[in-house]
Specification:
It is a single chain. This protein is an alpha+beta fold. It has two domains: 81 residues, Winged helix-like DNA-binding domain superfamily/Winged helix DNA-binding domain (Arc Repressor Mutant, subunit A, Orthogonal Bundle), CATH 1.10.10.10; 47 residues, Dna Ligase, domain 1 (2-Layer Sandwich), CATH 3.30.1490. The protein is built from five helices and five strands, in the order H-H-H-H-E-E-E-E-E-H. It has a three-stranded mixed beta sheet with strand order 4-3-5, with no helix packed on it. Strands 1-2 form a two-stranded antiparallel sheet. Helix 1 packs across helix 2 and helix 2 packs across helix 4. The relative contact order is 0.13. The model has no long low-confidence stretch (mean pLDDT 89).
Length: 135
């Protein structure tokens, strides 16, 4: 997605498309690596020398409020961010630390005794060793 398309996308969601916001969204869209705020900062600081972590946090909060991005915790102190693309879970390789998206589609995740419950969000996290690291 190019910068003009991102600017239009942000406007469509009621967000003023400032240069840092466009670049943060572009990074999330292009990389799809489930980055932390530190990852985003370290990758964009050369492009935007005035960028601060506060700007990143505030931008991500704005994106989350607009349902463009979601955050999730993999470990106690490891908050990650991603573009909302579809319902899925995550697998984290304990050797290479790569995070994989695992689609779960229309799986029935709620046991029968909870049929009257309304589920607003599903988070499934799997940990182990990826196929690449097993070889």
């Amino acid at each position: 997605m190019d910068s003009l398309a991102i600017a239009d996308h942000l406007k469509d969601h009621g967000i003023k498309p400032s240069y840092p916001r466009i670049q943060i969204y572009k990074y999330l869209y292009d990389k799809r690596s489930h980055p932390t705020v530190d990852d985003i900062y370290n990758n964009l600081i050369k492009l935007i020398p005035t960028l601060s972590k506060t700007t990143i946090y505030n931008t991500l909060d704005t994106f989350i409020e607009a349902n463009l991005v979601k955050s999730f915790m993999l470990d106690e102190n490891e908050k990650r961010y991603e573009i909302i693309i579809h319902d899925h879970s995550h697998f984290k390789c304990e050797k290479c630390n790569r995070i994989y998206d695992i689609p779960y589609g229309d799986m029935d995740l709620l046991p029968k005794q909870y049929e009257g419950f309304k589920v607003n969000e599903v988070q499934i996290f799997l940990k182990g060793v990826c196929e690449k690291c097993l070889k």
